[in-house]
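Input sequence (232 aa), recorded before submission:
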Amino acid sequence: MKRITILVADDEAEIADLIELHLEKEGYRIIKVSDGQEAIRAVQTQSVDLAILDIMMPKLDGYEVTRQIREQYHMPIIFLSAKTSDLNKITGLVVGADDYMTKPFNPMELVARVNAQLRRYIQLNQPPAVQTTVLEAGGLTIYPDQRNVFLYGESIELTPKEFDILLLLAEHTKKVFSVENIFRHVWGEAYYENDSNTVMVHIRTLRKKLGEDKNKHKFIKTIWGVGYTFNG
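Predicted structure, token format:
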């Protein structure tokens, strides 16, 4: 069985060593690098299943590393940074990260988040059952098995979490999902109050990609005080 490989990109050797210590206890193989260019090179030359990235790194910062990774790869990305502002967290999620933790951090919490992200990633990448389900509504076409989305025949590039949110809503067209419900379904983790920002940022970028700022049709409808529903 293939051993899961995790990339740790941080220019603080003590932190990288601490992460390696705890993740190796879980049986993971760890690749440590100390700058952004090395992180990109590692992803391109080795089979990386998850990346833990600092933001403030030499040569390329974590944001740019994530942008470049997302051009070709879909593995989970977790930011681990000393930057604690909401703007930094939102920026990290918008550029393509799946999670964001701040320093100082609890190593066991990081391990739990790594396990949760990998569990979901592995489940999503299992060979799909033979299935021909296609969801269509108002010019929007969703292929759940291939994880493809088309709007009026043009392919729409979504991050894994954006796709999961859209599919969740589109498969339950008459149901209203609260922010907490969306987080639990898509992230598969316990919900905390701060996680509401994570969900809302993803929905905001998803709406933009679906052209809701240009088109009259709104695929995701806000039910004020309750949550979100699919407007097919």
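Checked by second reader. The mean pLDDT is 89.
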